[in-house]
Fold each of these.
Amino acid sequence: MTTPRSLGFGLGLRPIYYPDILERNPAVDWFEIISENYMVPGGRPLVILDRIRASYPIVMHGVSMSLASVDQLDFDYLTALKALATRIEPAWISDHLAWTGVDGANLHDLLPIPFTSETLRHVAERIMRVQDFLGRRILVENASTYVSVDGSEMSEHEFLTELAESADCLLLLDVNNVFVSSFNHGFDPVRYIDTLPADRVQQIHLAGHSDYVTHKVDTHDHPVCGDVWELYAHARNRFGDVSSMIERDDQFPPFEELMREVEKMRGIAASVDSEKVLA
């Protein structure tokens, strides 16, 4: 399985911005879709997606693969996912290091796991089965967490490092999730990033979150904050030219505001790259 090339600087594709994208042909390098929003045959979303796909690379990002669940893998879901991939030919497909349900019930949340050797073997085996079925590597994203699971034997970044090697998968580094979880659990976000294997990080997410003083929640309804921009600069310095994008899922601003965030992301990357050349 080959590693896809870098796509540049992207944006999450959301229906509220369809008119802006179709009418303006914005200076975005690529778009990421929420896979489940386009897995129903027919309808306007697929028609719009086909039009946008004609002009931009697309990445598929899912929230229902439930890679860490003890339920059987849902091959009806995976078949629909594969059919969508065949239709739009995404650069890659990703989902989360989490479980989303049990006994066939989807809880519509990304739930935490114990970081143990047993869990590692279980999740790695499921990822390998998914990759075999899809015929491609997938990217696995670090989810934001709000509670710790008793019995963990390693840190999350150690678990992700071992998982990527064991399953021969790639990683989607959500910098905002690292920041949110580091605040909630009291770990060093810089060390987290420095520990991940550089050759496995294929994509970066940036987003805003809600601050409740005692804890932070990954809500995707605010602009990217200063601390997360700083962490992104560090990640860019560590991982180099990795495809990066902005997520927004609520309290949608005018499209111009999102484009300013895309340009800020592009500017930070250029500044980091220049400093590395001068050094």
Amino acid sequence: MEIILITGMSGSGKSVALRALEDAGYYCVDNLPPELLLSFIELEQQNHAERVAIAMDVRSATSLPLVPAQLRELNNRGVQVRPLFLDATTETLVRRFSETRRRHPLSSNRPGARGGEAAHDQQRALVDAIELERELLADLREQAHVIDTSVIRSSQLQVHVKSLLSAPMSQLTLVFESFAFKRGVPVDADYVFDVRMLPNPHYDPALRDLTGRDEAVVAFLKQHADVELMFSQIHRFIDHWLAPLARDHRSYVTVAIGCTGGQHRSVYLVERLAAAFSDRWVTLKRHRELDAV
């Protein structure tokens, strides 16, 4: 049985991820109380279920600390669960809650909260609730593959979730992601490399509208020694540490490569690194800015 456990920050897109899994043929359960996790999985095993997706959130705050131990228990029983954690920056979450006028699940727990308090105080209360939620979910985040939804659309999130399903659960999966520093560093990255100091094809009018996947840009970047040096040093670093990471039972390692616009240099290096590691490791690649177009 294939089991996906979705957790994450309120407002980060858990319902979108759950819908993507439902579309992929998973039997989905939203807001399952952690106390019922083991018995629910036992029931689905008896029913010979093949694909199950479970969502939990901070509405079960008092019992969430049970989940890490439950996951270890399931692993000891030979039941593999793929934990997925959706995250976003506090600024993004504040904006989403403000736009939808939804109340954060933990906001009512703040002592002295009043409906008539000033807008500034309401925002401060929302930020406090979000930071409290981060603390409560920290252990779950540590054990899961993290997807940063801060600057991606719902359609991109659905693609990311579905792409993870193709990766074997028993092997470490290496995720390479290009991004633009001007839109923020992905919070899901395990390693971040800044390549903004490399020659920029943007300043060549013939290359400006192309991407790091186009042959003309590839040829431009390959002719520069600094680009080759950057590639070899990143490759050597990752290659050295992947085996120890796998021995540490890591399921995913996300390597983010950033340049100014997320269009040329970072895209080129992600494509090249993914190709270099794909013969020995399960690799996925994402281009945050290009995929949003």
